[in-house]
Amino acid sequence: MNVTTKLCIIPFIAMIMQSSCHTGGSSTGENDTFIQGNEVTVTGDQFRAAGMMLGNMEKVLFENAIRLNGMISVPPEYKAGVSIIMPGFVRRIPVVEGEFVHEGETVLELANTDYIQLQQDYLEAFYSLNYLRSEYERQKSLIGDNITSQKNYLSAESEYDKMLAIYEGLTEKLRLINIDPGNVEKGKITSVIRIPAPITGYITTQKAYLGMFLESHDIIVEIIDTRNLQLKLSAFEKDVLHIQPGQLIRYRNVDAPDEWHVASVRIVGKSVDPETRTIPVYGRIEEEDKEVYLDGMYVEAEIITQDREAYGLPNESIQKEEDKFFIFAKKDEGDDEIFFERRYVTVGQVSETHTEIITDTALTEILVKGAPNLKIESSIQ
C-alpha cells in the first residue's frame, strides 16, 4: 500500500474547470496543472484567472489578548425593588413588565383603612399641638412676670414637647406612604396611597394583581436603568496582573458569535473569589450598544493588554492539513509556468487578517492570495 499526494486547482472559470489533477508529472492539455510530490505547476492563465498573488513575509502588529467570560449587568445603584411601608390591598396597577417609567411615576395603588386611621391620628396630634403650644407660650409669659409657678411652666413645656414629637413622627409616616400632611390638615383624608417608582428605568418584574394583599416586606415590582449597563467579567488570578483600567475589551453575545462590540476596562476587582479563584473586571459599554444588550446576558470577551510586532502572512495563505500548517512558496518559473512547493510552517498568534509565522521568517515569493484554490488530496492505493 502506498500513499500518493495530489494537488489540484479548484476551478474558478470554464477554462480552469478543464484542468485535472494528475500524479507523476503527466499532462493531457495546455491548461492542466502539473504535479510532482509536494510541487505544483500553475500556468499563467490559471494564475491570473484564480486571482493569485505573490508576497513576502511582513512585520505585523499582533495583539496580546486575555480571554474571559461574563455577563451584562447593572450596578446596584441602578436597580431597584419596590416595596411598601404599610400593608394594603392592590387597587390599581398602571404599569406592566417591559414598560419604561420615570422616577416618581406611580407603579401601584393600594387601599387600606389603616391609612385612614393614620391620618386621623395625625389630625388629633395637629390640633392638640396647637392647643399645647398656646398653653406653653402662655405659661412662659406668666412665669416671666412671676405670676405662675415653675411647676406649671415645666408641665406645659413637657406636654408640648411630647406632642411635638408625636406630631413630627406622624408627619414622616404620612410622607413615607406618599400622603401630603398639608392635605390632611385641610380635611382631605384618603384610603388610597400611590407607590412611586424610585428610579427611572424599565419594569422587569411585576407580581401584583388586583385585590392582592401586600405585606410590608413584599417586593412586588423591580426596575432597572438600562442606561447604565456594564460588563461584569471574571478574570483568573494569573491574568489579572496584566489587566488595567482603560484597556480595550472586545465582547460578543454567545448566541451571536459574529457580532463583536467594543468596551473599555473601568474597574479591576481587588479580592479573589475563594471558590472560583477569579477576580471581577467591570467594563464600560458604548452608548449605542446599551440598546442591543439586556441585563443578565452572557458574553464572551477578550481584553487587549498590549500590541507586539512579529512576522506574519495573510490568513488566506495558510493552509491546514490535519494538525499541520503549510504554505505554497514559489520555487521556479518557466515559459508561462510557475512552480510552487509546499512548505510546512509553525504558526503563532492569529489576528483577523494575519497569522504569525514562527519558523522560516525569511521566505519570499509566497502565494498570499489564491492559495485556497490549490487543493491537497491524499489517496491510498
Structure description:
With 381 residues, the protein is α+β, with helices and mostly antiparallel strands. The protein has four domains: 3-63 and 327-380, no CATH class; 65-76 and 227-308, Beta Barrel (Elongation Factor Tu (Ef-tu), domain 3), CATH 2.40.30; 77-112 and 191-226, OB fold (Dihydrolipoamide Acetyltransferase, E2P), CATH 2.40.50.100; 113-185, Helix Hairpins, CATH 1.10.287. It is built from six helices and 25 strands. The chain has helices at 14-17, 44-49, 113-144, 150-176, 181-185, 237-240; strands at residues 3-9, 34-36, 39-43, 53-55, 58-73, 79-83, 88-92, 100-101, 106-111, 192-196, 201-206, 213-214, 219-224, 230-236, 248-253, 261-268, 278-285, 298-314, 319-321, 324-334, 337-345, 347-350, 354-357, 366-369, 374-380. The protein has a six-stranded antiparallel β-barrel. It has a five-stranded antiparallel beta sheet with strand order 2-3-21-20-19. Helix 3 (113-144) packs antiparallel against helix 4 (150-176). The longest helix is centred in the middle third of the chain and has 32 residues, at 113-144. The chain is elongated. It starts with a strand and ends with a strand. The relative contact order is 0.21.
